[in-house]
Specification:
The strands form three sheets. A six-stranded antiparallel sheet has the order 3-2-1-6-5-4, sandwiched between helices. The protein is built from eleven helices and 16 strands. Helices cover 29% and strands 27% of the residues. By secondary structure, the chain is of the alpha+beta class. Helix 2 packs antiparallel against helix 5. The chain starts with 14 loop residues before the first helix and ends in a 6-residue tail after the last strand. The chain has three domains: 152 residues, GAF domain (Beta-Lactamase, 2-Layer Sandwich); 113 residues, PAS domain (Beta-Lactamase, 2-Layer Sandwich), CATH 3.30.450; 91 residues, PAS domain (Beta-Lactamase), CATH 3.30.450. A hairpin with a 5-residue loop joins strand 7 and strand 8. The longest helix is centred in the middle third of the chain and has 21 residues. Keywords: Kinase, Phosphoprotein, Transferase. This is histidine kinase. It catalyses: ATP + protein L-histidine = ADP + protein N-phospho-L-histidine.
């Protein structure tokens, strides 16, 4: 047995298989994602498969999450992003039984044409005695016993390699306790971090170092204390961040924020954080763990898009869940001002409330109606077409003059 709990019976390997296993141990500084990607490449090649999937899980998680993909189209990979540990799918069964599993079952009630004739061969990934996931190969036919045995041995090497593959700044956090992200196959720079409540110290991976570099902090010398990091947050955003932390701590809701960090030179960057608090065996919250990424580029694009809507000649509104106006462009604001109306925070007219509700009921699909709302225009007919669509909890509405001679 290896330290990962897999069999190592000393059976002779094909020369190419022995080389595949050796390649998985180098370079020594490869992180966990790189180890998984390389393992999938070798596994698919060795079994003559069509593609490969690697799933991982935290110790307490009830699902396996897709952590790496090789040779699998995105539309198929998306179906495997989250796998219930109690399902009969091959990755779940392999992780649960700690043995190799072949299955033709696919996620969902309808496997679709792309899954016709395909099976999944999965082996468990066991690190330091803990089942942490599964490595799978998609094939058209069940592999021969000798190929199955090789995949089992490859999984054992991966399980032995992973505990030392990924090092956090402090070197104290086991990598499989990091918050795991689905869709790691995307080329996204998402970092993982944790905040120890007792000491106030932050622990994080190498991706977070790039976020630290956006501030005046020296990545090698700063004290890694939460208070020091909070001082880097833009003053206008700090109250909202404090409230989000308090809310998550108090009622257990996920922590989800976007805020600005600024350095002494005035450079502003945007970061997005998602996290949850973890508890000890007594139920006391002991640390917050989560992910972070640089969203400066996206925020810049959003600002550009907002500026386009700001200058659009038709009135545009963003309505919140209580049917109150949360944002309005220049045309809408000018019309409201001319009518003596204070727009932001104002409930939408009763004639439009039903449209807002219909938009929420058909999220992502635009709905329209004709209304007579002269108070929202500067002169002309009151007949207007309102086009509304729900986006992430808000409803965006455009009011267009469709009367003869209207704009």
């Amino acid at each position: 047995m290896t330290s990962s709990g897999h069999r190592d019976d000393g059976a002779a390997l094909r020369p190419e298989d022995a080389l595949r296993l050796r390649w998985l141990t180098a370079p020594e500084d490869a992180d966990g994602a790189e180890v998984l990607r390389r393992a999938l490449q070798q596994a698919v090649a060795a079994l003559g498969g069509l593609g490969g999937l690697a799933h991982l899980s935290g110790e307490e998680a009830d699902s396996l999450y897709l952590a790496a993909v090789h040779g699998v189209p995105a539309e198929i990979a998306r179906r495997w992003e989250t796998v219930d540990k109690t399902s009969d799918l091959a990755p779940s069964a392999a992780a649960d039984r700690r043995n190799i599993v072949w299955s033709t079952s696919w996620p969902g009630d309808d496997s679709g044409e792309e899954a016709a004739g395909l099976g999944v061969l999965s082996v468990p990934l066991v690190a330091d005695g803990i089942s942490i996931g599964a490595l799978s190969v998609l094939t058209c036919t069940p592999p021969e016993p000798e190929r199955r045995e090789f995949l089992l041995r490859l999984g054992g090497v991966v399980g032995d390699r992973l505990p030392t593959a990924r090092r956090w700044i402090s070197g104290t956090t086991p990598w499989w306790q990091e918050p795991l992200r689905p869709r790691m196959m995307r080329e996204m720079r998402v970092g993982a971090w944790s905040w120890d409540l007792a000491s106030g110290l932050l622990d994080y991976d190498h991706v977070i170092e790039d976020l630290v570099a956006m501030t005046d902090l020296d990545a090698d010398r700063w004290d890694r204390h939460i208070a020091t990091w909070m001082e880097q947050i833009h003053p206008d955003d700090r109250p909202g961040v404090d409230r989000a932390i308090e809310r998550s701590f108090t009622d257990g809701t996920p922590y989800a924020v976007e805020y600005r960090v600024v350095n002494s030179g005035g450079r502003i960057g945007w970061v997005e954080l998602r996290a949850n608090f973890e508890t000890n065996t007594s139920g006391e919250k002991v640390r917050m763990v989560g992910t972070a990424m640089d969203v400066t580029a996206r925020r810049s694009r959003e600002s550009w898009l907002v500026s386009l809507l700001e200058l659009h000649p038709d009135p545009h509104y963003v309505v919140d869940a209580s049917n109150r106006v949360a944002w309005a462009n220049r045309a809408a604001s000018a019309a409201a001002e001319a009518a003596g109306i204070s727009l932001i925070g104002r409930p939408v007219p009763d004639t439009m409330a039903g449209l807002m509700n219909r938009a929420r009921a058909t999220s992502g699909t635009a709905v329209t109606m004709m209304v007579d709302i002269p108070q929202l225009t500067q002169g002309g007919s009151g007949a207007r077409e309102v086009r509304a669509v729900e986006v992430e909890g808000y409803v965006a509405a455009q009011v267009a003059d469709v009367a003869p001679g209207g704009s």
